[in-house]
Design goal:
Blueprint: E1 3-10, H1 22-31, E2 32-39, H2 46-51, H3 57-71, E3 75-78, E4 94-95, E5 98-100, E6 104-107, E7 113-116, H4 123-127, H5 137-156, H6 164-171, H7 173-193, E8 197-200, E9 207-210, E10 216-219, E11 228-232, E12 238-242, H8 243-264
Parallel strand pairs: 1-2, 2-3, 3-5, 7-8, 8-10
Antiparallel strand pairs: 1-11, 4-5, 6-7, 9-10, 11-12
Helix pairs in contact: 1-3
This protein binds manganese (II) ion.
Manganese (II) ion binds next to loops.
Amino acid sequence: MALHFRTIWLSDTHLGTRGCKAEELRDFLDNVECETLYLVGDIIDLWKFKTGFYWPTLHSDIVQRVLNKAKNGTRVIYIPGNHDELFRKHVGMHFNGVEIQMDAIHETKDGRSFLIVHGDGFDSIVAHNKNLAYIGGEAYEVLLIINRWFNIARTKMGYGYWSLSAFLKHKVKNIISYMDNYQHIMSLEAQKRQVDGIICGHIHHAEITELEFGKLYCNTGDWVESCTALVEDETGKIELIHWLEDSLTLLDKRMEEHAEVAHAM
Ligand SMILES: [Mn+2]
């Protein structure tokens, strides 16, 4: 009994790296269906292919799940990010029913328009703003790798998972200001493009928040640490799903709804 959404946005799955939470992602894909699926960049990590090939069967399963959705009527739009920017050469093309686009404009059921971009295109704007304490996406990625090793060690010693991004959000001023500034640039872009909001990924921090000019900022998060996705329901409402925490509740609710419908018939 799949959960149905009008639209789903995923990003930063980093397939081809050990950091990818592939089992969780496969479970998510097996339990959802949608009319449109946006892959918002850094889906396959082509950078890692240069330094060593890592591609377990599980990662092929995920590609398979996505292609199956395309085959079964889901519109799949792939917007490449910086780790899969090679695909940007193929913008405008279709592969097995997957459309590759540089960016996209999505209209929600309730008539709002959103610009969909990965977000790396705004890094240099953030970096060149002298007023900002800048920590780049790459430094952040190194921290994420350290975080993974740290948590493997913690698990071995019998401690629970410790979230780097949660820690950084509260403790490290530089990264906060990087995120703030990333959002600020996004609000300017939304204003420029005359859309109601922006949906992006890239900084591995899932969030829905209102920005300047009343623009809505929606970040998909990632499947390296947080296992998050953005979804639009049948009324046009956009929400964030934390799959590890929300999946059981959502699936239970779906079962109950189904039972009620069956009962009414
Ligand atoms: Mn990225």
